[in-house]
Amino acid sequence: MSKFAVIIAAAGQSQRFQDRHYKKPFAPLAGKAVWLHSAERFLNRNDVKQVILVISAEDREEFFSKFGANIAILGVDVVDGGAERADSVQRALEKVRDDIDFVAVHDAARPCLVDAWIDEVFAAAIKSGAAILANPVVGTLKRSTDGKTTKETVSRSGLWEAQTPQVFQRELLSRAYAQRGNLNPTDEAQAVEATGHSVTLVNASRMNMKITTRDDLRLAEQVLKALPKPNLTNPAHPFADGDMWR
């Protein structure tokens, strides 16, 4: 069985979230923090051998005050992020264990995951070396130069909206970041594409939403109610007796 590490990105500034009490990965959602919803789907898998949470250095003290017990129980590694997402992922890659075959990167702010989606993107990455969840763009796209009026309509033909997790052979992803130079990729697929390696698209559900604003929390709570519950029958699971992470 291939061994996976999962990097959960939670080091952003959450500027569009506009909550003076919480950054979005740490906001409460259906009884637990957003990042815990994301983490638990991976921690329950036999093929995931390491989970690394990347947070902003400025959040470390408050984070451990609130979630230190969770981190200790779950065995999650915590790494301080950098100025940009790419810097954060690169720092986390340095902490990946030597026995890991594949690395998945997931947005902490995507809490509405389903095990079957992870199965599909993991399987695709094993086959091709690089795979991401994504959706074909279905809306009509407009370009604006002033943010107030439309300049033109942009063809959506061939366009996909990337999601996470994004999964790669460990050596491939590490090499992509080591060679990125001045490139500041907005996702891991962009870094890998720059090496010339193609990335497999795995058609995903739009329910795998990313929380951006506070209104998204209410929508995510409804989505969580509609999704299948995690499988907690795995005896290796830290809460196999049915308790959920708080």
Question: Can you give me a brief rundown of this structure?
Answer:
Helix content is about 30%, strand content about 25%. With about 250 residues, the protein is of the alpha/beta class.
Topology:
Layout: E1 4-10, E2 28-29, E3 32-33, H1 34-43, E4 48-55, H2 60-74, E5 77-80, H3 85-93, E6 102-107, H4 115-128, E7 130-136, E8 141-143, E9 152-154, E10 160-169, H5 170-178, H6 188-193, E11 200-203, H7 214-226
Parallel strand pairs: 1-4, 1-6, 4-5, 7-11
Antiparallel strand pairs: 2-3, 6-10, 7-10, 8-9
Word description of this protein:
- The protein is α/β, with parallel strands linked by helices and 246 residues long.
- The protein has one domain (4-226): Spore Coat Polysaccharide Biosynthesis Protein SpsA, Chain A.
- It has seven helices and eleven strands.
- The chain has helices at 34-43, 60-74, 85-93, 115-128, 170-178, 188-193, 214-226, and strands at residues 4-10, 28-29, 32-33, 48-55, 77-80, 102-107, 130-136, 141-143, 152-154, 160-169, 200-203.
